[in-house]
Amino acid sequence: MLKIALTGGIGCGKTIVADLFRRKGIEIIDADQIARLLVEPGEAGLKDVVQRFGTNMLDSRGHLNRVLLRNVVFNSHQDRKDLEAILHPLVYRRIESEIGRVKSPYCIVCIPLLLETGRAERFDRILVIDCPVELQYERVRVRDHLDDDQIARILASQASREEKLRVADDVIFNDASLTSLDNQVEKLHNFYLKFSKSTGR
Ligand code: ATP
Question: How far is the CA of 66 from the centre of ligand 1 (A)?
């Protein structure tokens, strides 16, 4: 199975691009969605998070208080490392098992923090969704109602645009219309189909 990792900074357009591939019948595995499922009540991830960070991380219904946890790890490097050490192995294990069930000719695994989690070599190709930083600010301002300081902090916690482009096998440049995006997706889709046939993956 040909495994394409799709990554890119906040607001670059990963979700929108993944949707375009999905419309072509390609199965999408979403690391963020998996990470959320793994801390649902009854899941192993939640048990480990509570063991490390305490029961005050749970609300009255036993669900993870994500806002509280996010604040804790945003303000402490060690806490963040500890949370990652709990969640990342679980997320990647679940990704592997989902890849095993894929029926489409290739699959796309959407991993915003691919470089930051150091797992890029597990994939056959890395597709980076790229756009100018100013556009990232503009989109996130509108979508998430964050101010520029908040956006800057998020950007500082992510690998830089240059680092992502350096590891990219393929790049979709998302600074224009949705039609331009669709054209780029169409070209890459055809390339991946051929690549998958020629390599037998
Ligand atoms: P995040 O990492 O925050 O989840 P993302 O990389 O998945 O972001 P999207 O959610 O796909 O990014 O896009 C960010 C916002 O910008 C969305 O509101 C989306 O609709 C808008 N957007 C992205 N690309 C375009 C485009 N080419 N034209 C118009 N709007 C766009």
Answer: 22
